[in-house]
Amino acid sequence: METWSIRTMAPEETMVFAEKLGALVQQGDVITLEGDLGAGKTSFTKGLAKGLGVKKVVNSPTFTIMKQYKGRIPLYHMDVYRLENEYEDLGFEEYFYGDGVTVIEWPSMIVAQLPQDRLKITIEYKGESERLIMIEATGSRSSELSKELAV
Ligand code: ADP
Ligand code: MG
């Protein structure tokens, strides 16, 4: 499936882009965020949360694996960086196929447990305030989402 990208020149630009995605997501959507430490995964999630109407401040869930926020639909924000092993099952499916949208930082840790159809976002560090954001759909729903986001 087609991959496209956008370049941002400031954290605010990344957040505005993610905010647009937050306005488009529906229940059951799964968004994965890949990229090195400091790439902007959590910043992206903050913007997405804003687009979802989340009022609380979104912080990295590093020490809890998952944090849940109330928005237009629930937001399940996961950071699976600290999982012991890739097969550790913390009941992820309940969230993936639940009534909200799931955003996962470091998805490679649990790739075997992820749903097949997901919007894959990769953020690449290009300079102090420049990032390349790549978007890839892996199924029919994420493809639809990707097209709406590209408009
Ligand atoms: P991650 O969750 O990937 O570790 P964070 O979102 O916590 O990354 O941190 C990204 C850092 O990079 C923040 O300090 C943010 O202000 C900075 N930054 C600089 N330029 C950008 C940009 N264009 N997009 C996103 N973040 C940026
Ligand atoms: Mg983070």
Write up what this structure looks like.
- This protein has helices at 11-24, 41-52, 92-96, 140-150, and strands at 3-8, 30-34, 66-69, 75-79, 101-105, 119-127, 130-137.
- It is an alpha/beta fold and 151 residues long.
- It has one domain: Rossmann fold (3-Layer(aba) Sandwich).
- It has a 7-stranded mixed beta sheet with strand order 1-7-6-2-5-4-3.
- α1 packs across α2 (41-52).
- The chain is globular, with a radius of gyration of 14 Å.
- It starts with a strand and ends with a helix.
- The chain binds adenosine-5'-diphosphate and magnesium ion (MG).
- Adenosine-5'-diphosphate binds next to α1, α2 and β7.
Global geometry: globular
Rg (CA only) = 14 Å
- The averaged pLDDT comes out at 94
CATH class membership: Alpha Beta
Termini gap: 17 Å
Oligomerization state:
single chain
Main beta-sheet strand count, sense and barrel state = 7 strands, mixed
Major sheet strand order: 1-7-6-2-5-4-3
CATH-defined fold name: Rossmann fold
Number of strands: 7
Percent range for β-strand residues = 25-35%
The poorly predicted ranges are none
CATH homologous superfamily assignment: P-loop containing nucleotide triphosphate hydrolases
Structure summarized in a few sentences:
With 151 residues, this protein is α/β, with parallel strands linked by helices.
